[in-house]
Amino acid sequence: MRIRQGSWTTLKIELAKTNEPTRDKFSFVEDCVTLKMLHEPPTPTLTKPDTATVGRSYTVTCSVKHTCSSHQPTLTWSRSTDVDVKSYREIHSGNWEVQSILTFTPEEKDDHEDITCTATFNGMKTSTAKFTLYVKRTQNFNHIIIPTAVGIGITVIFGVVCIFMLKKYKGRIAELQSRDGSMWNRLSRMSRRVRSGGPGRSHSDQR
């Protein structure tokens, strides 16, 4: 076996001869195999929604490809207390993918937090991918509902007071009118009596 180093490596393989007479002998000296060497492990890929909402479930998927089924890479998260589900699958011949799904419920304190997924390969080689979590607060209409309710309440109370005062005022007017009417009636009767000579005068006095 002969290996020439470089970004691309040409590998020539020759099957060693054996003394066993029954085994077939093959030579690959003229047939070259070209290999692309990766100097660094592949970087994980993150799939996620753009924003998270307080109190609602949020899911992030981290996946990384590899070519060694016997030594699969391990995926870990910076948030170790949340639900983490892993899966492995073969993409096509000689290529596999490991996937980790992180599910959690964001809080307000999680806003602008960095979440990191780390892939650890055989030989302790690692690669990471991270993103900044943006948490959106749930829609709250209290700043509209409370002032509106207070305004309606004040309006109702003011209306009730106005109606009460109006009824009381009308009652007072009616009472005054009634008093004025009875007084006018008394004055009218007195005036008629004066004009007629007053009560108790006899016919002899009039003569």
Describe this structure in words.
This protein has 207 residues and is α+β, with helices and mostly antiparallel strands. The chain folds into three domains: 1-37, no CATH class; 40-136, Immunoglobulin-like (Sandwich); 144-195. The chain is 28% helix and 33% strand. The strands form four sheets. A four-stranded antiparallel beta sheet has the order 4-6-9-8, with no helix packed on it. The chain has a three-stranded antiparallel beta sheet with strand order 1-2-3, with no helix packed on it. The N and C termini lie far apart (170 Å).
Helical proportion, percent range:
25-40%
Q: What series of H and E elements makes up the topology? A: EEEEEEEEEEEEHH
What is the count of helical runs? Answer: 2
Whole-angstrom Rg: 50 Å
CATH fold group of the largest domain: Immunoglobulin-like
Counting helices, strands and paired strands, the structural category is: alpha+beta
Q: Regarding CATH, which class of the largest domain?
A: Mainly Beta
Architecture per CATH nomenclature, i.e. the level-2 architecture of the largest domain: Sandwich
What number is the mean pLDDT?
A: 76
Write the CATH homologous superfamily of the largest domain: Immunoglobulins
Spatial sequence of strands, sheet with the most strands? 4-6-9-8
